Amino acid sequence: MAKRQDPFRGFRYVVEMEGLVSGGFLRVKGLSREVRVESYKEGGVNEYEHKLASNVTYPNLVLERGLALDDLFKWAQAAADGQVQRRNLWIRLHDEANDNAWAWEVAQAIPVKWSASDLDATSQQVVMESLELAHHGLRKAT
């Protein structure tokens, strides 16, 4: 009898960045890939149009966490100052036993936007920082 395989839960993950301490992230957004297609209409063929695969695009990756360390800010500031340093990062999804179950490698990421949540004296919320990264693609990592 085969062992039942449940889907992985989205809250068990670790983000590792080349050369940065970084800490834990509350949210990771933008793990997707799209193969663009171009339509080609062939003369005399009216029942369909050809769909030809074009380039692959990746949206920017967004990492969010509570504001604590300044490593992400320094990396983003250096890029804003013209000292762009590309870094690879890995997002590792864990299973119920906390073992690595699935992982993505994000290639050659650079910070393109850093932001912090609003400061509000009437709120008790943690100040959040968000780092948006452009990259050269993601692959399943081992």
UniProtKB/TrEMBL annotation:
It comes from the Bacteria. PANTHER family: CONSERVED HYPOTHETICAL PHAGE TAIL PROTEIN. This is Phage tail protein.
